[in-house]
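Q: Structure tokens for this one, please.
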Amino acid sequence: MFFHIVLERNMQLDPRYFGNNLRENLVTQLMEDVNKGICSSQHGVVVAITGIENIGKGLIVNGTGFASFPVRYQCVVCRPFKGEILEAVVTMVNKMGFFAEAGPVQIFVSNHLIPDDMEFQCGDMPIYTTSDGLVKIQIDGEVRLKIIGTQVDRTQIFCVGTIKDDFLGVINDPASV
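A: Here is the predicted structure, written as tokens:
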């Protein structure tokens, strides 16, 4: 799920940032781009930059005055794969299923992919629970799930998961703590 890789990116810098601190301005802009969310279907979501390997020579972009610099950097990326088992925190529960997050990845588990012995109960706090009430899926609960599909957006990765398999389901219920 998490990988440490080297990526390369062309950074465009406004002429007002040219000068003695050109390198620092490029690094600052790269960090800001990461905070906004850099995502690709090949590598996943960039979580953190761990180092700058090289900043190449800049080329002036015709008509704008901006300069384009090739930047090689080391980073940690998050890329879930189909069939991967994850532990996630439940963020929303409704009659259609529930949403959970594992790092920067948002996962939806449909009510068809929840075990048959669990039923949805609406109220002040909607939950999925077993008939005996011992197992509950609720907001801030932790679940172990399996990824069955992924969709990459421009800034985020969405997944579809299931807990309808062996050794999957609730691993921590906030109400029992």
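A few notes: The mean pLDDT is 91. The first strand starts at residue 2 and ends at 13.
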